[in-house]
Fold these 3 entries.
Entry 1:
Amino acid sequence: MGHDDYWVALSHEGALLGGGFFLARSYVLTTTACVQGLVPGDRIDLHTSAGAVLTGMVYEVAEDVGLALVSFLPDPRVDYATPLTDHAVKGDDWRAPYRPGPVAAGLRGTVDEISPDRRIGDGRPVHVIELALDRAVHDYAGYAGGPVERRTDGKVPAVVGIVLDPALARRLRDGAENAVAAGAISSAVEVFEALSAENQLRLLLGAPPQDAGPDAESPPDEWPAPDGRTSRKYASGMSLLRGFKRAEAEGVVEAWDLAPVQLRVLHEIVDTWEEEFRD
């Protein structure tokens, strides 16, 4: 993935809450279990694996799917090591690099099953990655919020999901005891408007985030391209994103298939912009 320091530990008033990871510019993805008792606007500290501490804020909590988003103010001079994302398939090898402490065992194993459109009651659907462990772990609650990496031989390492807390995993896996599960990256992109391609480009161009909701203004068909070296990558990236949206609208592909690819295109644009800023 190019970097190993993309995951973070979350804390509030000195207490460890759980894990999370940089998923897009300005945002860290985590689970609702990791921000339990907090509300949007509450301060939260992000401890990177490299030892830096960033000040974040609970941005949005999606209780119905068990996911939460934390925002922070990025410094263009710092590489936040946003990881490559992709889909998991049954039989993939996986590992969870975030551990709740230095002596905690690492989680790894194989993907047991992919269960699309699981939901709790009337909640929104979640694409669930059912995980098998290569060795038993008594309690993996402390690993919640950390990324799940694909580590299959012959495939490029990539983040495919987020570790769900045991209670949520059990509910999404029909009450199975000792269930271990991850939410697919595509579910987060579908749930949070802040992670949409349009909103990420608004941030890149210095515009305020677009709020989600039925009254939110529709994004324009064309965005003004930034100046400098970024412009060519921006133009080609926007052409790809528009093609993705057309393909989805025509039913050629599903939104779940496009989410990791859209994030990859956006990361390329942002990386180029940040290189230009540093120069």
Entry 2:
Amino acid sequence: MYFQSKSIASLAPKLLQTQTQRQIEERFISLVQSCRNLEKLHQIQAQSITHGFFQSPFLAPKIIIAFFHLQKPNLALQSFQQIQQPNAVLWNVMFKGYTEIELHAETLRLFVCMRKRDVVPNEYTFTFVIKSCARTLRWRVGEEVHCIAIKTGYESNGFVGTTLIDMYSSVGVIESARKVFCEMPERNVVAWTSMVSAYISIGDLEIAQVVFEWANERDAILWNSMICGYIERGNMEAARELFDQMPGNDRDVMTWNTVLLGYSNSGDIEACERFFEEIPEKNVFSWNGLIGGYMRRGWFLKVLCVFDRMLRSPTATLNDATLVAVLSACAKLGAVNIGRWIHVFAETSGFGANLYVGNGLIDMYSKCGCIMDAMLIFRSMETKDVVTMNAMIGGLATHGRGLEALELFDQMLQEGERPDGITFVGALSACVHAGMVEKGYSYFRLMTEDYLITPWIEHYGCMVDLLGRAGLLNEAIEFTRRMPMKPDSVIWSALLGVCQVHNDVHLAKLVMNKIIKLKPEDVTNYVVLSNIYGTAGMWREVAGLKCLTRNTGNAKLPGCSFVEVGFQVVEFCSFDARHCKTPDIYQVLHGLKELLKSAGREPNVYEACE
């Protein structure tokens, strides 16, 4: 007999004759457990059948488990069906395999087969089957399984009871969950945690707190569940109070990170900073939590400072989420030099082939004006997803390379990749830049009719912008009127931008009246209208508009910008005097102004009211 593997060849007939039955069986089991190759697993299974070991209650489960590990549930089922009289252990192996790979419908079908064969389920069976009922939201089926558990005497089992509580609470049937909990003869900390989580899931924190206080024992998971409940409802004060009551021995890094993330998500970044410094042993999620808080507040310079601190810390570790956040901060700041350094760092730190980091690099380079670098990253990526395509299509569109963006979009469709709403925003933006009205209409119909994506306000804004820039003002207004929702400030701002392109003062006034009613505090639109008036030489209206913004408290805040000098990002604002070299800076600016004047360049200066 010919063997393709040395390990399998070791089971040749002569060797089999020199070993006991138990030794041979153990040898088969060892081979199966170490097997990571489907072809070899088939060979081992074939040999076990040939030599009469496949029906072994010890070997058969191992082979079935191996098929599940190789993501071959159909082969696992075929092997299971070859067993003449599968015992409860073997049935449970199948249930476990299906639930682990989220094939919950198969779990329920197999349970029906088990009942038809009159095989008695045990506590492990009920745990897997009830969990599948919860995952598929089939709580009526779960009720039937619950009845079977009662008839077979397993309802009082702690594992079964806890799983029933989780199932009923997952579909909001709290009364049934409470009944199971109350009828449990012994309630361990897992049961208490399940009941607390059940009340938290329906937002009843008062009852959850009562159950929490009744618990005869509490572990870190129970404490964390209650703390998470308060955080999810935005009650950081109660969450922090509970955290302070928590015994020090029960506090793990997950507990610290949960509270940190709560502060971060609530926007209380100062409390987040203080709490971060209190964490005794910070892990990557601690650092990422602080970085996430800064990102949400728009404090991108601080993101870079935290990243620098991480690199200098001997204990800090980072992951792909860290790099993606820092790349996003670089994109916001226009810090392309730092972004390039992070690119090299990612390559040398084992993140070069990471999908999420690749997407972040495309986004960073695109937003920093380096579209060619973004395209190089895109072409070098072996694995791409819809986010990758969105970043590249959007980047090309933003850089005025609409035709290339549309070619990439069409290629995406031809390859069978399903676009999402963001993809169509990029495609429609590309149509705007390329001035392709008919193409824009066809993509809009494709989105709604073929992919059944409900248009967002951004999609409508792109279409209005597309029609308006093409000079089809009446069509743009008509498109706005046909929208299923009322136009918001995004739509009217798009129309105002169109008025600026065509210098349509009359329409601009009408549109601005709509914007003032919806978003009077947005000074950007006042600036656009002011520019329209200025282009038309209507300086009196410009001055009146400035008076209006000041009198209504909508005066434009001092503008702030960032400039990257080498590997340092510097923030500066209008009339800023914080920099140590302020006199030198203003001296250079004054010199530039004089040079412009001597070259005959004069600014548009118009009278402004006091």
Entry 3:
Amino acid sequence: MTPKVLAQLDQLDADLAQLLDRLMQEQHSVLAHKLSPERWSAYEVLQHLMLSEAGSLRYLRKKSQGLSQMKKAGFRAALRSWLVTVILKSPLKFKTPKGTGVEVFSPVESFALLSGQWQKQREEMRQFLSELPLEIFEKEAYRHPRGGMLTIGGMLQFFKVHFERHSIQIARAIYEVKPR
């Protein structure tokens, strides 16, 4: 794993730990409450983020078997990564890709269980990335559902801005539910 990717992973894990620490203070009913059928609860947003990362990791596991067929990343991959970042930082709304939305959400039994699952998933991702050959980090190894082919660093950048975007949504969902 490259030092840059390691730093990105460390930052992702620190951001996740901070979010989970904040959410641990909330009641289960607050995290599960939906203000309307069209709006997601905090739990649903968390599930969306987890499913997105899990799907990305599944894709990368499969794709990593064909290292010799991967294109070397260049300006276009960097541009696509930048565009994904800019678009996710915008106020625009997007339809969720198949397999990461309400159609696959399940009831959350407890915050501790959901939190533990996500932390385990992150540990598995770190382990998998640490076992990859260094040359894969210079390749277009990951396909973003909307942005196209990115490097693994581009994938982690997507995870970061996606996480930031939805962290705001989680905070808003909790704020709107809690009595003042």
